[in-house]
């Protein structure tokens, strides 16, 4: 069985995230998790967003949840000494990222949707999203590592593993591995339509995941490509068993978001990425103008067909009641 419609119904928090209908209920807050204690380090270019150790993360999520923000997306920031050619640390069940999943699930249980990023780029020494052989990113061997990462996150309790790597066939492989391991309630959010965008810059500082050589154009989508390719990718991931289909970035691809939302039957997510966040934070003169910009942006995502909106603005919008 590769499609299990019950996954998106598994908890009240999942149902509310996907079907709540309001802007607040659709929001997912990204977090950058680092090893250590009492670390709360601002990130260059992303005012208000910090790298946090698990203890600080727990307090932040608790406060967010009290304002109705009930979904998180976790990125594990891997220290230099733990990076290697095979991204081993990304599926090390003792890592701080796995501790964060356990701790959040222990504290919030089914009241929080925990999503985790599944990619190799934060844990490889060369910063690429796959294994590299002769300076090329190889596909199928990379998928095997992605499966190990996804399994380790799901076993730690993640609601959704979020495959952001853009290797061919990874959703199929992750879904079969979940079936073999009887992880029948673990979801997969596929970054199906992900462009090789110039809007990821601040994120790569935050996640320490810049490629050491080359770029991501051999796996992420060409920014000039048309709707046919977007729909091909979305349909493939849907048929391979993705529970949520994502389009990324958001603002430059609202047209693509609309087309994809009209072309798939599974719920659709959009990622309002780091460069889009920085643009708004830089452009707004004061808090009132920022509020208007953020609400306008989030409204546009809903209008274009997003059920789920991953945004760094989520926290401020929820805590200040800009959206409900
Ligand atoms: C990992 C990943 C990236 C983002 C999310 N997951 C960076 C990339 O593909 O280089 C970008 C998110 C953002 O810019 O906010 N592959």
Structure description:
By secondary structure, the chain is an alpha/beta fold. It has 12 helices and 12 strands. The protein has an 8-stranded parallel beta barrel with strand order 1-4-5-8-9-10-11-12, surrounded by 9 helices. Helix 3 runs parallel beside helix 4 and helix 5 crosses helix 6. The N and C termini lie far apart (37 Å). Ligand PBG binds next to helix 7. The site of ligand PBG has 11 residues, from helix 7.
List the secondary-structure elements in sequence, H or E: HHEEEHEHEEEHEHEHHEHEHHEH
Figure out the total of helices.
12
Helix % is 40-55%
What is the mean predicted local confidence, pLDDT? 96
Radius of gyration: 18 Å
**Distance between the amino and carboxyl termini:** 37 Å
- Taking strands numbered 1, 2, ... along the chain, how are they ordered across the largest sheet? 1-4-5-8-9-10-11-12
Q: What is the approximate shape?
A: globular
| Ligand identities | ligand PBG
Q: What is the makeup of the main sheet?
A: 8 strands, parallel, barrel
Quaternary structure type: single chain
Structural class: alpha/beta
Are there runs of 5+ residues with pLDDT below 50, and where? Answer: none
- The tally of beta strands, per DSSP, is 12
Strand fraction? 15-25%
Short description:
The protein has 324 residues and is an alpha/beta fold. Helices cover 40% and strands 18% of the residues. The termini are far apart.
